[in-house]
Amino acid sequence: MRVERLGKDKIKIFLTLDDLSDRGIKKEDLWTDVPKVHDLFNEIMEEAYEELGFELSGPVAVEIFALPAQGMVVIVSKGKEQIWADEETDEDLFALEVTLEESDSIIFAFKDFEDLIEAAKRVNSYLMYGGELYFYKGHYILVFDQMDVLDKNVDDFIALLSEYGEVSPISKAVLEEYGKVVVKEDAVKILINHFS
């Protein structure tokens, strides 16, 4: 489990499939097994408090992004929802609004262009189709469809990308609307041809 602060009132937690299986949770449980998910959320919040001093009170919005062959990203934001604004709330309690999304896309963000190029070189042999490249909020973001990875080597493919970048919870729809398209098709092969 990796926890990082995104702002004063927002954190991001990345849970690998191993983190989930260690807790006896499958990705499908997120949609069906409420007690297990509740226990997982409490554990996440304890770790966030220990590592970052992030404490819950009042309204909380939780976005859970299930990522193929990787695990999930949980974004927790506190104190932003207006639906509780007029209600009195106990300081020790928190209201919870959860959004669950599952994606067949593999999306990785790279802060450094050189890391992007190195990742492209390493994963090229795993691809039938080279994905798309966007620029969004200071990051280069590669987007792949799981079906583009040859011979179902998705785990190895993701492991290689993880050496150079990090899983991005940003959806392809957000990138298409707000990001800048750098290379729309076959991005990996184009990067290699121009920068190797």
From TrEMBL:
Highest taxon listed in the record's lineage: Bacteria
UniProt similarity note: Belongs to the MecA family.
Database matches in NCBIfam families: PRK02899.1
PANTHER family the UniProt entry points to: ADAPTER PROTEIN MECA, ADAPTER PROTEIN MECA 2
Assembly, per entry: Homodimer.
The name this protein goes by in its record: Adaptor protein
